[in-house]
DNA sequence: GAGTGCATCTCGCTC
DNA sequence: GAGCGAGGTGCACTC
């Protein structure tokens, strides 16, 4: 049996199913009217409302409202979930040790309780990160400009790590700050801080923001100091082009 | 009827229920074996596996695996969700306009499909943020030190906003950088940047990190420049102490 | 276990 | 709608 579901269960049935789901390390979900209190890194209270509760076998605990991507309350993986009955009411509890965090959910009414034993070993294959950009530039320096020769990745300075360090065709030092999406003023400020570390070579170092685009404010800030912007999209090619077609079925 | 659920539905039943749920603006959930492709800000592929799919009435779309807090694939609120049948297979699609993003989910097998019409108007009450800290210090400046008088909140400089500006009992300028949790080197770097704007008063300005704690690295960086750290917990008192007790039921 | 930095960050706010 | 910064950020990675 891959899953169990029960409509409008009694509190004791609900308790039993959740308890069973926890023991079997299933993904448990409830549609329920509930309220929640959280205490830990912050403190919060959530009044009564209709929500969806999810408990995963890794200890993740999520309460989702009917809007937003983020759960309204949650506990991270490795939290310990418990269920108990108190005065005929089902209470869910999730505890984390470090940092100490505690979430308690009182369930007024359950519409649907279910658990699901589906396991999923697949990992997401994703591309288009800053890291992918760095690798692409390292392999194809000419994407920055003809004659560019990168010398260091993650070059350490007192102000942090420079994404890519290199030299142009005239041997002039180049500092590249990569962003996988539109660069803002922060990226420029970061670049300027790195340049501070090379002040002795004043005027001899080129600072370049490499990103798909840049905000107007950031461009202004950049040109103020004679720095440069190079438009470059992060690579969006998955390493293994897994066939995802209808043939599969 | 607050919800519908169907175990092991046929593809066409599944399609019908999802379609109905979308029209009724319900929260739709599926336990299903599926695969997904995403393209937009990045690109990703997720092979076949057992997962939980959630579509909210605000357009949020989530695919959850049996682990982690974050969905493995998702679309943000205001995305447009569609369902269709193709060669007897149910396909879910979610599209966002700006930025252009597209998520497509092919559903191989559905164990449970359901939708839920529960509405939830409750907002989360939460405290313990940096903002709460700022308000607390503004009201009780003596928490920083005897004689401290704050003069500005969110004071604008060329490097950003200073959380709190004020003077000590000797009339010396004080720049406070607040963090609601352990301060790291970034907080110190930020503080140092603000201080740059006051360099003409060199030695006459005190820079202080205010946080519950600080990393060792950050403390070192701080003391290097004769700056200070003040340990202060963010306030954790909810504005209205809403009664959340079992009496409610 | 703590510290650091990226993210399809999300989300709320301001302009 | 774009830009900016905080977050119970989460998460992977390093040390």
Which architecture of the largest domain in chain A does the CATH hierarchy give at level 2? Distorted Sandwich
How many separate domains make up the residues of chain A?
A: 2
Q: State the shape of chain A.
A: elongated
What proportion of the residues of chain A form beta strands (DSSP E)?
35-45%
Might you state the CATH topology name of the largest domain in chain A? Protein Yojf, Chain: A
CATH class of the largest domain in chain A: Mainly Beta
In short:
By secondary structure, chain A is α+β, with helices and mostly antiparallel strands. Chain A has helices at residues 11-23, 130-139, 185-196, 216-224; strands at 3-7, 27-39, 43-55, 61-64, 73-75, 80-86, 89-96, 101-116, 125-127, 149-157, 160-167, 173-178, 205-211, 228-231.
Salient structural properties:
elongated; 4 helices; Trna Endonuclease, Chain: A, domain 1; alpha+beta; eight-stranded antiparallel sheet; homodimer; Protein Yojf, Chain: A; 249 residues; five-stranded mixed sheet; DNA-binding
């Amino acid at each position: 049996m891959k899953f169990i579901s029960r409509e409008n269960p009694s509190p004791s049935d609900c308790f039993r199913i959740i308890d069973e789901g926890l023991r079997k390390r299933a993904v448990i979900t409830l549609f329920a009217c509930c309220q929640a209190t959280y205490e830990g890194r912050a403190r919060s209270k959530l009044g009564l409302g209709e929500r969806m509760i999810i408990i995963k076998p890794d200890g993740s605990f999520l309460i989702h409202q009917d809007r937003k991507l983020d759960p309204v309350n949650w506990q991270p993986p490795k939290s310990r979930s418990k269920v108990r009955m108190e005065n005929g009411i089902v209470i869910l509890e999730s505890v984390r040790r470090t940092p100490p965090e505690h979430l308690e959910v009182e369930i007024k009414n359950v519409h649907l309780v279910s658990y699901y034993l589906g396991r999923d070993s697949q990992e997401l294959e994703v591309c288009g990160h800053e890291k992918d950009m760095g690798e692409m530039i390292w392999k194809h320096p000419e994407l920055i400009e003809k004659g560019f020769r990168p010398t260091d990745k993650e070059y350490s300075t007192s102000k942090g790590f420079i994404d890519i360090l290199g030299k142009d065709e005239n041997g002039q030092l180049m500092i590249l700050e990569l962003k996988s999406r539109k660069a803002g003023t922060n990226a420029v400020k970061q670049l300027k801080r790195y340049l501070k570390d090379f002040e002795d070579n004043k005027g001899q170092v080129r600072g370049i923001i490499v990103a798909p685009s840049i905000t107007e404010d950031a461009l202004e800030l950049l040109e103020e100091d004679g720095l440069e912007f190079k438009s470059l999209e992060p690579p969006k090619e998955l390493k293994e082009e897994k066939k995802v077609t209808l043939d599969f079925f």
